[in-house]
Amino acid sequence: MTETSLSSQSFPMLVLNNSNAQPLIFFLTGIPGLKATQYWISIPFCLLYVVALSGNSMILFVVLCEQSLHKPMYCFLSMLSVTDLSLSLCTLSTTFGVFWFEAQEISLNTCIAQMFFLHGFTFIESGVLLAMAFDRFVTICDPLRYTTIFTNARIAKIGISMLIRNVAVRLPVVVFVKRLSFCSSMVLSHSYCYHVDLIQLSCTDNRINSILGLFALFSTTGFDCPCILLSYILIIRSVLSIASSEERQKAFNTCTSHISAVAIFYIPLISLSLVHHYGHSAPPFVHTIMANVFLLIPPVLNPIIYSVKTKQIRKAVIKVLIQKQFQI
């Protein structure tokens, strides 16, 4: 069944919920208006997925295998790589299922599971970026206490606290989505399940779902972003107090990779929100392509940035590649 027929077909006004005998089925959407070229458009997306998966796997591999990288900064970097890998894998199957095989059907439970992990890993990435900002702050502003602050036990606690925060804010969202009833239109506007997209199809009052979604957003990225900004204000103030211009430059250089990672995470997120709210005149395919690209920008660019900007990572990656070449 095609996208056009799904959207144009008239359904009886039937109210469906989880108490029905049959499971609820939704229909994912490819790229509206570009169905004829959808297969070819999917090829760049495929390349982006390959770069994201291979790049983050390489970063994770070198951090785990290279003894010199067993330091707090690189522990957080490996957390970032795991999160980016998970984000990419969350949407991989449904995106290419829709693009290549027109596998548009998805059950409500599968949709909710994908939504939970998709939003969850996005919020975890925000938390990892905050932890990395704190790492940079201590490195520059209080270097003598760095090893006593970032012990292995404390890094593990930071990681666990991010997971607990994510489950605590996402679980109520999932519970209340399960309570919604859905009417005739079961067509989602993306190739993956997105909370706002799903609750808009409900024919019952979804205000509590919107409130819970906003609370989850503001208690994670809404909290993390100002804290990251504050940490860099304090870092800049500390760096400017250094007398030597060479030392100032060296201190700033230690932050460039992280600043880039923060920018490529938050700028697309803000841009996508602005397009959704104010870009109503834009063609539907613009929203869809932007939504797919947004999910891939951080996983694709983060390993590239850290490989290029961080000398230790670059050396470790080159070392691994040379060793593999000699083995061949």
UniProtKB/TrEMBL annotation:
GO terms for biological process: cellular response to lipid. It is a multi-pass membrane protein. GO terms for molecular function: G protein-coupled receptor activity; olfactory receptor activity. Residues 55-306 form the G-protein coupled receptors family 1 profile domain. Pfam families: 7tm_4 (PF13853). GO terms for cellular component: plasma membrane. SUPFAM superfamilies: Family A G protein-coupled receptor-like (SSF81321). The chain crosses the membrane at residues 37-64, 76-100, 112-134, 155-177, 211-235, 256-279, 285-305. It is found in: Cell membrane; Membrane. Its main location: membrane. The keyword Ubl conjugation does not apply. Keywords: Cell membrane, G-protein coupled receptor, Membrane, Olfaction, Receptor, Sensory transduction, Transducer, Transmembrane, Transmembrane helix. The keyword Cell membrane applies. Belongs to the G-protein coupled receptor 1 family. This is Olfactory receptor.
